[in-house]
Each structure stands twice: as C-alpha cells, then as structure tokens.
UniProtKB/TrEMBL annotation:
Record protein name field: ABC transporter permease
Transmembrane residue ranges: 205-229, 250-281, 301-321, 342-359, 371-388, 419-438, 547-569, 596-616, 628-649
Main location: membrane
Keywords recorded for this protein, A-Z: Cell membrane, Membrane, Transmembrane, Transmembrane helix
GO cellular component: plasma membrane
Localisation: Cell membrane
Domain ABC3 transporter permease C-terminal as annotated: residue spans: 211-319
Length: 668
C-alpha cells in the first residue's frame, strides 16, 4: 500500500491559501539567493586554484635529461609585474614541446606576448617598455591556455642556447628573489612544473577564508527559509496529529513540502548563476578578471549545492516540529513559549577560552585558523538566543512604554526567532570590525626611486656602475648611481648597482628599460619586486575584506527582510487580536522595530568589538597600527548596514497592514 504522505502534503500545500503561498514564495526566494551565493563562492574557490595552476608552467621544473633551457624573470612597469620566460632549445636533443598558449616552441628571436602586454607595448613609449625585449617586426600572441587572467602581462622569448640571457645562471635576486619565486633557471624537458606564480599563490587560501566568512550568513539565510510559516505549519500539523497522524508522517509531510520548495528556489538560483557567469568573470580579483570557464563549477557541484540548500531548508523546517510531535495540544493552544538555558553561555565561554589559548600558543596552521573562525561563528550562533531572551526579560522589567513592553514580550516568547532576524548583521559585524581596521603590511622595505641590478661579484659591480651611468645619461634619466656590496638598499646581500632615480614613475620605468641589458641574465628590479610577495598577500586580503563586507551585508539585509516578513505571517493571529483590542497599527509597527533594535545594538556591537580586537592582535604580529581610514570605513559600514536592515524590515509594513485589515475574521 502506497504512503498517503505525498498526496496529503500536496493537498495541504494547494489548500494553504494566499498566506501559505506567500511563505512558499519567500522560502523559494531565500533558497535562490542562498544557492546563487554558494555557487559563486564555490566557483571562486575552485577557480582561484585552477588559474594559479595556469601559471605553474613558467617556473622551470629541473630535469637532468632535459631538452631546453628555461629562465624565469620578472620586470615591472610601475607596480604591474611583467613575467618574462626565456626559452632555448639545446642542440642535439629531442624537440621540446610547445609551452601552454603557444602553437610551437619559440625559435631564437621570436617574441610572444599576452594580449594585455601587446596593448601596453602599443601605448607605452618604447624607452619605457618595448626596449626591454628583443626587437622584432611583429609579436606572436600567447593564447588563453598560457595565461591565468586576461590582464596578465607575460612575454615568452625564444633565444639561442649560447645567448648569455639563458646560458648565464639566473641566480635568485637577494632575499626576495630567493623566497619570492620571481627568478629561476633550469634545464627542462617540458612545462609540467608545480610551483605557481607568487602573484597567484595566496589566492586560494585567501578565498577559502572568504568562503568561511560568507558561507555562514548564507547558510543562516537558507535555514531561516525553512522556518517560514513555522507557526502556521505547527497549528495545521498539530490538528493532524490530534486527528491521529503519527510523528513520522507529519515530519515526512513537512520535509517533503519544504524540500520541493527549496529545490525549486535553489534551481532558480543555479540558473541565475549560469546566466550571470559572463558578468561574474568581469569581477577583478588579484591579477585581474577571470576566464569564464574557470568559474564554471561543473554539473556535479551545481547539483550538490542545489541538493544541499534543499536539504538544509527541509531539515530546518522539520526541526520546528519537535513540539508538535511531543505535545500537539500545547501547540494548538499556543501554550509553550520558547525558553533558553544557561548552558549556552557556558559553552560559548568554553569555546572562547579554547580559541584564545590556541591562538596565543602560536604556530597554528591555516586550516586550524579556519576551524577556529567557524567555531567562533557557531558559538555566537549558540549564544545569540540566550542573550535575546535575557535582554527581553530585563527590558520588560524596566519598560515604560507600550511599544517597548510589546517588544520585550516578543523577545522572551520567541528568542530564537528574534535572533534570526538580526543574526546576519550580527555576524557581519565581526567581518566589518576585522577587515576595516586591520592593517597587515611590512613597512621596513621601502625603497622609492631605486633601481637595482645584481652582479656576481663586487668587481663586476664597479665595472657595471660606470656603464650604468652612461646608459642612464643616454636615456635622459637623472639618477645617482652607486656601487653596493649588498649591505644597504634594495639589493639585500647581493653585490650590484643601485640607481637612485629622480623624477616620476615614468622616469623609473625608463631607467629599468635602459639597464635591462646591463648584466646578461639579470633583470633590473625596483621596490615592487622586493615587496611583491607581501603586497600580493595583503592586496588579496584587502579585496577579500571588501567583497566579504559587501556580500555579508547584502545577505544580512535579505535575511532580516525575509525573517521580518515571516514573523508577520506567523504572528498574524496575535497582531489581529491586538488590533481588535484597540492597539494602533503604528504601535505594533514601532514594537516590531524595537524588537530588532534592542538585540541588534547589544549583539552586533559585541561582534564588531570582537572583530576589532582580532584585527588588533593581527596588527601586533606585523607591528602595525589600527588603520584610521579603516575606522571611518567601519563606522560607515555599520551605519549603512543598520539602515539597510531597518529598510528591509520596513518593507514588510504593508504585509502587517494586510494581515490586520480584517481583524475580526483573521483572529478566529
């Protein structure tokens, strides 16, 4: 005999009326938003790793039986890195396969450039850029397979095996060359290296932090969607339970209905993700925008996210029915107000102590830090309803106005529901506090206007110094040229020549170009080279902070508006009774806002302060101070976020008016 659950669930869904349809549409909308954002986060995570791997071929992988010599060098135009790969086929060896993005192994004298570099070569004076490369009648083009982003500046130069540019050992340039991965030389047999570029190496790790930060509010939003219409659903299923339905049957009906609604919304979000892929690819991160294919997660992951969102909504909906299964009569009479226990505070304190002890011990891995961040979010989610409950009781004791008393009563009657309204912005407050006032940077290595050329010995440095003066004079660059044994300036332990250029950035670029052939196999470099690894990491963190703030506040606003609308639908009987008793609509609306403002001020203020404290601790590690501009940004973020939340809650005012228009019929 087939189960009656699907037919009964379908019948009840169709007979749920206009109010039930509103709840279903809101739930589907929340599922669509959650699915879309989770797919974007998944795409960014996998895409950042994939495009980092697209740069690995440029770092030579040594092979003693190799067939070609490959060198990696990095030069800069302003603060934009230009990756230079030189290749030379060794005589008498097998033909080396073509590098990614090229149709064949480059012949001596051939120069291939990325489209972005070709555009710069066309627009920039030759003495600032083009003269750094061999003169050719026309440049070849590096295809997408050899690039990580459309904006990348990459050049591949074919050379003869006897050319000093490849035959001279390209030793790492000082401290930063050794650890920055911008210079290398090896005999290779192909281009299957595993060491990714310094300009993409931190991308995946940073994105994973962003995923952890943003995914929590998104999951909260999806879980809130499962609770839409919870009060109405409880009343309806309590009647079925009293009529003889088993707990398993009412759980199955709820899960089935919620899963179908969630799946429909999640599929809509997945469709939106597919349609928005070209637009998402235009969002810059790190080295530039994206190739669209790198942001496609694949059908298995797309279906997995849809199933996850639908399952989350179904589970969230079923968890609201515990009281229906245990005491259906109490639900029907609305005689079981929610209560929270002190154990929530104890567990929160225990988690904070663990995080503090673990972080203070030092040496935590990136995975441990990510786990601690998730633990902090989970602990705060556990504590939130308890704080709301106590806040409602304290407010009720000292309330002097009817709106405040009504708000306090709602906080104590349903602390979990009130917490869900503000939880998004509360968790976003930590993100805002951490990323706005944080100031992670290394200020000890600043060498403005310096252009350095390393040499193999101090004697060669003295000879190169005289030649450098001649080259700079011929190029029209005013500079003071000195010989360094590596103990001062930008060379960091390597003997060489340092030119202190007077003038603007174009003068520095001209100096770099003029000195490019000074020492074969040694490209001149500037401060941008010395700080590349640090700048790449801090730059990604800054971009992550901006993106995480924007998405977190958007999700928080959507979650607040969604939950506010759901609360109006769930409490329509209470609101109708209050209207019948003569309560003005403005008073009810004012109570709704105070019900939001009270926990928001206390809890969002707490998480924002926690974020500021965490940023302060990180700043201490880097011996930096709180960012003054970041403090102003924080104030703006909190203000705009609060106003957006109030606007989202205010958007449900027409719904409040609608459910109380005919109070005599509604409050049956």
């Amino acid at each position: 005999m087939s189960s009656p659950v699907p037919q009964l669930a379908w019948f009840l869904a169709r007979r749920s009326g206009r109010r039930g349809l509103h709840s279903q549409l809101l739930a589907a909308g929340a599922a669509a938003v959650g699915s879309l954002i989770l797919l974007v986060l998944t795409a960014a995570y996998f895409g950042s790793g994939a495009r980092a791997q697209d740069t690995a071929w440029r770092t030579p992988a040594p092979d003693r039986h190799g067939t070609a010599v490959q060198t990696l060098g990095t030069t800069y135009l302003g603060d934009r890195p230009v990756t230079v790969v030189s290749l030379a086929q060794l005589p008498g060896r097998h033909t080396t396969p073509a590098p990614p993005g090229l149709t064949g192994f480059p012949e001596p004298g051939q120069v291939y450039v990325s489209p972005a570099l070709a555009d710069l070569l066309d627009k920039t004076p030759a003495n600032q850029l083009a003269d750094r490369f061999p003169k050719v009648s026309s440049y070849g083009t590096i295809g997408d397979a050899g690039l990580a982003a459309p904006e990348e500046l990459v050049a591949v130069i074919g050379r003869d095996a006897s050319d000093p540019a490849v035959s001279t050992a390209a030793e790492p340039l000082g401290l930063f060359g050794q650890f920055g991965g911008q210079t290398a030389r090896a005999v290779v047999s192909g281009f299957d290296g595993t060491e990714v570029s310094v300009f993409t190496s931190a991308d995946k790790a940073v994105v994973s932090i962003g995923v952890a930060i943003v995914a929590v509010p998104v999951i909260v939003l999806a879980a809130a969607a499962g609770r839409l219409g919870a009060a109405r659903r409880e009343q309806r299923l309590a009647a079925l339970r009293l009529a003889g339905a088993t707990p398993r049957q009412i759980l199955a009906m709820t899960g089935l209905e919620s899963a179908v609604v969630g799946a429909a919304g999640a599929l809509a979000g997945a469709l939106a993700y597919c349609l928005l892929l070209p637009a998402l690819a235009e969002i810059p991160f790190g080295i530039g925008t994206w190739y669209t294919g790198r942001l496609w997660v694949g059908l298995p992951w797309l279906l997995a996210v849809v199933a996850f969102v639908a399952g989350l909504i179904a589970v969230s909906a079923m968890t609201t029915l515990r009281q229906v299964a245990v005491s259906p009569l109490g639900v029907a009479q609305q005689a079981n107000p929610s209560r929270t226990r002190l154990v929530r505070l104890v567990l929160f304190a225990a988690v904070l102590v663990y995080i503090y002890v673990t972080a203070s011990s030092g040496g935590t891995s990136a995975r441990q830090q990510l786990a601690m961040l998730l633990m902090f979010y989970g602990a705060f989610w556990l504590l939130g309803p308890w704080v709301v409950d106590r806040l409602g009781r304290i407010t009720a004791r000292f309330a002097r106005r009817p709106a405040t008393l009504l708000a306090a009563r709602r906080l104590t009657d349903d602390p979990r529901g009130s917490w869900r309204t503000v939880s998004g912005l509360v968790l976003a407050g930590f993100v805002a506090g951490f990323f706005t006032v944080g100031n992670v940077s290394i200020d000890d290595y600043r060498f403005p206007g310096q252009v350095a050329v390393p040499t193999t010995s101090a004697a060669k440095a003295r000879t190169a110094t005289a030649e450098a003066r001649t080259l700079l004079h011929a190029a029209g660059v005013k500079a003071t040229v000195t010989t360094s044994d590596g103990d001062d300036g930008i060379l960091f332990g390597t003997p060489g020549v340092i030119a202190h250029v007077s003038g603007s950035a174009p003068q520095v670029d001209t100096a770099v170009t003029a000195l490019s052939g000074l020492v074969p196999g040694k490209l001149p470099y500037t401060q941008a080279y010395a700080t590349a690894e640090n700048d790449a990491f801090t730059g990604r963190l800054g971009e992550l902070g901006t993106a995480a703030l924007a998405v977190s506040f958007l999700v928080a606003t959507a979650s607040a508006g969604l939950t506010a609308a759901a609360n109006v639908l769930d409490r329509r009987r209470v609101y109708a009774l209050l209207r019948l008793a003569g309560t003005p609509l403005k008073l009810l609306d004012r109570a709704r806002f105070r019900e939001t403002v009270l926990p928001l001020v206390v809890l969002a203020g707490g998480t924002t302060a926690a974020g500021i404290y965490a940023a302060f601790q990180v700043n201490k590690l880097f011996d930096s101070t709180i960012s003054a501009s970041g403090a102003m940004t924080l104030a703006v973020c909190v203000t705009v976020g609060a106003l957006a939340m109030f606007a989202a809650i205010g958007a449900s005012r027409p719904l409040l008016r609608a459910v109380t228009e005919d109070a005599a019929q509604t409050a049956d």
